[in-house]
Specification:
four-stranded antiparallel beta sheet; about 300 residues; 9 helices; Alpha-Beta Plaits; alpha+beta; seven-stranded mixed beta sheet; Formiminotransferase-cyclodeaminase, Chain B, domain 1; globular; 2 domains
């Protein structure tokens, strides 16, 4: 295989497994595309899918899948803990092998235009594909969520990059972009007090004066509170550093950390850094990981 692109589409359905199976089916049957993971979360009511493959095949599979999601997901009835504005909420393309960021931007543009023309879904381009500075940050694009999008689209500053300035009545709006790999990471607190989670999230995220490469919030899920985040540059903000900081902040409120989870795929390098820290290793690298040689 030559060029390889990764795509991590997020769908606003995490409870109905039959629907999810139909939505991800295009990734299973298309040649040159490999479905790496499909992770539904009933509390978030969201499914994160990770696929890799040749750019053409991945693009076509995403377009087909988004059409199925538009038929099966009714955003007017959607409820969940995660912010969302569309049935296919966000579609990021990530360069993996023999792919430049400029190629991922072109792929995002092509898929965004197809979602608008074939499925009637208005599309915003974000991150490296953004057409305006204020559209780089996904949180700003999604602000208002599905319920606030009709009014937002009436603002001349928020005309979609593709499609009409009207939400799809069931499928809402989709963000399509290009970015480097990130780590979607959640930390569990042994409390049901969402205000504590919000304070901790504010302390670690960049907009609150925390880590430069952290976007964080708090949600109630499974009877506890999670500090949920994206680590947008794991090479400059390590997983272990964020985990230890959350533990430290939680102690201020008499709260403990009970565990954490990675959503989707994670680069091996990001995990190796944490192994080095917690085991006190020195002179360690991925070359000492047996499986890296088995994959050669």
């Amino acid at each position: 295989m030559g060029k390889i692109v990764q795509c991590v589409p997020n769908y606003s359905e995490g409870r109905d497994l039959a629907k999810i199976e139909r939505i991800v089916a295009p990734y299973k049957r298309r040649e040159g595309v490999k479905l790496l993971s499909c992770e539904p979360d009933p509390d978030y009511n969201r499914t994160v899918v990770t696929v890799i493959g040749d750019p053409e095949g991945v693009a076509e599979a995403v377009i087909e899948s988004a059409g199925i999601a538009a038929e099966l997901i009714d955003m007017t009835a959607h409820r969940g803990e995660h912010s969302r504005m569309g049935a296919t909420d966000v579609v990021p393309f990530i360069p993996i092998k023999e792919m430049g960021m400029d190629e991922c931007v072109k792929l995002a543009q092509r898929v965004g235009e197809a979602l608008a023309t074939q499925h009637g879904i208005p599309v915003f381009l974000y991150e490296e594909a953004a057409t305006k500075p204020e559209r780089t940050n996904l949180a700003k694009v999604r602000k208002g969520q599905f319920e606030g999008m009709p009014e937002k689209l009436r603002d001349p500053q928020w005309q979609p990059d593709y499609g009409r300035a009207e939400i799809h009545p069931r499928a809402g709006v989709t963000a399509v972009g290009a970015r480097m790999p990130l780590v979607a990471y959640n930390i569990d607190l042994d409390t049901s007090n969402i205000e504590i989670g919000k304070k901790i999230a504010a302390a670690i995220r960049h907009s609150g004066g925390g880590f430069r490469y952290i976007k964080a919030g708090a949600v109630e899920t499974k009877g506890i509170v999670q500090v949920t985040m994206n680590i947008t540059n794991y090479k400059k903000t390590s997983i272990y550093r964020v985990f230890e900081t959350v533990k430290m902040e939680a102690r201020r409120y008499g709260v403990g950390v009970t565990g954490s989870e990675v959503v989707g795929m994670v680069p091996m390098e990001a995990l190796i850094e944490s192994v080095e820290y917690y085991l006190g290793l020195y002179g360690f690298s991925k070359e000492k990981v047996l499986e890296t040689h088995l994959m050669d």
